[in-house]
Structures are given as structure tokens and as C-alpha cells.
Amino acid sequence: MAGIFSYGGLVHDVVNSEGMRASVLYYGPMTMGERAQGSVSQLTYGEYLATNFANVKEVLANIEQIKSTLVELPGLPISPKFHWTVTDKSGDRAIIELDPEGVKVYTGEEAQVMTNLA
């Protein structure tokens, strides 16, 4: 796995040995659960996907079971919020958003563009 570590704690972009890549952009509506044992923070969510799954199909098969939590990033006045894009070497892609209504996943043509607009 190789990744870009930024802002003192965020794994911004990551790719694994199977060719799956995860990236983040700002996403204001993001909602994550309370801290719990085994939960994954928004800072390492993409890293978690890249280290636990080989491709987009595996991510999507398991996305509902991933516990997530919002944590602060030192030096920022508020906790940063994100959404993620995952792609793999087959060309498959998905955008993952954790909204108040639950996990939203966009695939195929709906996942061609991800912006940081909320």
C-alpha cells in the first residue's frame, strides 16, 4: 500500500497492491457514528478500505458493516468531513457518502465525478 498522509493525520489518497485506489474530498453533510471499539475515523477510512479490500466489488459488499466515527484533527477548528471515491484496475468505481440517512453509494455513470460541494 502507498498513500499520501496530510494535515497531520489524514490519509488523503491511497492505493493497494491489487490496484484499488481511495481518495477523499470535503463533504459538509457527512455524518459518522459515535466512537466505538473497532470504529474507523474519517481520517483513515480510505486507508481502511485499501488495506481490507482488493477491489470496489468487495468494498460495496462490506460497506454497511463498517463502523465509523468522526474525530478531530489537531489545528483545525472543526472536525473535517469527507466523502470517498474508490476505483480499481478493472475500471469499476464508486462514491461513498455517509449521510444522516445512512450510507449512500453511487456507482457506474453516477460515479464519474466527485466534487467538494455540499
TrEMBL record:
The keyword Hydrolase applies. Pfam families: CBAH. One of its GO terms (molecular function) is hydrolase activity. InterPro entries: CBAH/NAAA_C, Ntn_hydrolases_N, Peptidase_C59. Keywords: Hydrolase. Residues 10-116 form the Choloylglycine hydrolase/NAAA C-terminal domain. SUPFAM superfamilies: N-terminal nucleophile aminohydrolases (Ntn hydrolases). The keyword Hydrolase applies. Belongs to the peptidase C59 family. This is Linear amide C-N hydrolase. The lineage of its organism: Bacteria, Pseudomonadati, Pseudomonadota, Gammaproteobacteria, Alteromonadales.
